[in-house]
Automatic annotation (TrEMBL):
CDD domains given in the database record: AdoMet_MTases
GO molecular function: methyltransferase activity
A Pfam family of this chain: Methyltransf_23
Protein name in UniProt: Methyltransferase domain-containing protein
Organism: Rhodococcoides kyotonense
Amino acid sequence: MTSDTTQAGAAPYSSNLFLNVYDLWVMRLSNSYAWRCNRQNFLDLYNGRIGHRHLEVGPGSGWLLANADLPAEVDLTLSDLSPNSLKHTASRLQIPTTLIEQDVLEPFAENVEAFDSISLNYVLHCLPGDWSTKAAAFDNLAEKLKPGGVLFGSTVIGVDQRYTLFGKALMTAYNKIGAFGNWHDDLPGLEKALNSRFEQVKVDMIGNVALFVAENPRATPRI
């Protein structure tokens, strides 16, 4: 079951116009001038961490996958609430791809096999609620990681941040329309949610963006 507020965060990706300008608006302009974390930082996060069997949650326009160093013969799965985003990314990559229309706050089907790597880029700040709600995404994804697998991703932090004027304007507008839900997302809360579920966690702040890497899911999460 998917809530209306979860759907609101995915709504922009149902527009072909938005996906067509995503590379310019999000990857170039917003990252560099609103959040002060340029696109190379995301490629550095991806490169070397994408395993043979990889799950990309919230692929957006597919820019990162199209520009990252993918393993040869990668077994790629895309997951998103927006079927439009899934089709757009799969068409752009032009490699065999499995598509799953899925709310990351809900458990994945049992027949979805585990992955070597899972990425969660710019998804958490689009989800509704605080970390007690959003952390369900970590639980659901940890269940689909192979032993030795890695979860990595990024999110715009909403608490105790100094934004550019552009960033402040975007934060206000996006949260008002429901595209973002991160006014209460703090860095300590993110770190706590990850550390309670994974034995190895690294979180770096670049501008207003938290870039995280988590490995070795705990057998019993410490809530």
